[in-house]
Amino acid sequence: MLWQVKKVMHGHFSDLSSLIRNFNDPRIGIEYTIEELLMAAIVLFVLKCDSRNSFNHKVKDENFCKNYYRIFRLSVPHMDAVNDLLAAIKTEVLEDLRCHVLQRLIEKRVFHQYRFFDKYFCIAIDATGVYNWTDDALPEDIGKHALQKTSKKGKITRFTLVVEAVLICSNGMTIPLMSEWVANDGKEYVKQDCELNAFKRLAKRLKSCFPRLSICLLVDGLYTNVSLMDICKEYQWKFITVFKDGNLSTVWEEVKSLLPLNQDKSIKEQISGDANHWYTRNYKWLCDIEYQKHKIQYMECTETTQHRKSKEECSHWFVFLTNLDVDANNVASFIRAGRARWGIEDAFNTQKNRGYVLHHKFNRVNFNAIKNWHNIRQLAFLVCKFVEYTQEIGEVKKEILTMTIKELWQDLNWFLTMCDVDDVCLEFDQLIKPRIQIRLQ
Q1: Which pLDDT does position 85 carry in this prediction?
Q2: Do residues 78 and 56 make contact, with C-beta atoms less than 8 angstroms apart?
Q3: Do 133 and 359 form a contact (C-beta atoms < 8 A)?
Q4: Cα 79 to the center of its chain, rounded Å
Q5: Distances (CA, A) of 54 to 48, 49, 50, 225, 338
Q6: In this predicted structure, what is the pLDDT of residue 88?
Q7: Rounded CA gap, 174 and 53, in Å?
Q8: Which of 216-236 are b and which e, b meaning 16 or more Cβ less than 10 Å from the residue's Cβ?
Q9: Can you give the residue ranges of every domain in the chain?
């Protein structure tokens, strides 16, 4: 794991330190450099520490500090100093850092082999809840930005949401691209912020950061509206959106009337499935449905799972709209791409329950710091995804079938505390090449 972390940092994030060193430091009376502080924050999430205190506990161990310096050539700071910096530094600084890192990866064509249809970068967009507060524990700065809802019994709940743009790769990797907070601006408002407004701001930033990228948005039924279609038309993007009952009633009426008349636009696919099940998929589609000056395509898939022995069956129905051209040759691929939107849900679950403690408040009083901690978390998540998807880690998991990713990260933590990394780092430094090749699964 240590070897893969060093290889990924050297191969894909070699300029991260130099970028951080060029930041303007807003602090007065500097004990640690800005590079030491921000790299330590990233390492906190890479090592799956669940709080600032957890990392500070590691810092008390002399062997860990020695190994940390040998790996990163940086002193390890106290997390209170890191928190002070993240409360002071502007959020735009770390947002631009994330954008620059991803631009470099795309320029190096790291993700090109994982595009859908060898052309589109499929970007899933969705919101997730992050923090909740009670009124008696709500700091003033948080209260200016937090959303609120009132129950039927009059109970007020304060909370925050964040809309994420996540690159879905065909090999299963989920790469965090950009975050946009659903939050009030701290001033008096008539109507508080909402997820759809945050999506519009996020789309504008995505276009600005990746102006020439061939993008296909993967979104759920909340975004199935004319605003999404207008944005995609303006930015020359494609979309595949979940189509639910209640969305676009006029389109539903047209679909129900046209489907019986277009029996030729239907195909059946039967695959062997797993050791215990057969899978049968029936696809249907309709083309050139007009909706408010937009032409869209409808597609659906009914998937039937049959147990090989008991013959017991269960079915699932998936329905999507798209502005891509659909026909018999590609409808199955489009359905798979639409269903790949699930990857963003798995990314949320991973960050909440598998070591990234998305719900933990690393700062409880400053909303600027909260957003900066979140940006650091996404950078660390990006590093960890590359590490976990290297071919070497895949081979370890195949050789030791009981080995899990969680255990591998735990073993790395143990190694940094109990062992000496000098031999590993020396061997790595001797064998490293100017352009190291990183093979992903």
Answers
A1: 95
A2: yes
A3: no
A4: 25
A5: 9, 6, 6, 45, 39
A6: 94
A7: 29
A8: bbbbbbbbbeeebbebbeeee
A9: 2-95+363-431
CA end-to-end distance (rounded Å), the chain: 16
Q: Which of 155, 161, 162 shows the shortest CA–CA distance to 134?
A: 155
Distance CA 396, CA 386 (A): 15
Token pair of 269, please?
């696919």
Q: How many residues does the chain have?
A: 441
**Which pair of tokens denotes residue 440?**
């992903």
Read off the tokens for 386.
């590359």
Instruction: Show the tokens assigned to 250.
Output: 């006029």
**Residue spans of the chain under pLDDT 50:** none
67-75 own/partner pairs: CB under 8 Å, 24+ apart: 67/416, 67/419, 67/420, 67/421, 68/43, 68/416, 70/421, 70/422, 70/425, 71/2, 71/5, 71/6, 71/421, 71/425, 72/39, 72/43, 74/33, 74/35, 74/36, 74/39, 74/40, 75/32, 75/36
Nearest alpha carbon to residue 360 among 78, 41, 131, 85: 131
The predicted-structure confidence for 291-309, as pLDDT tens digits, reads as follows: 999 999 999 999 998 888 8
Amino acid at 273: G
pLDDT given at position 429: 80
Q: Which runs of E-coded beta strand occur in 53-155?
A: 121-133, 147-150
Residue 411 corresponds to which tokens in the numbers above?
A: 């073993």
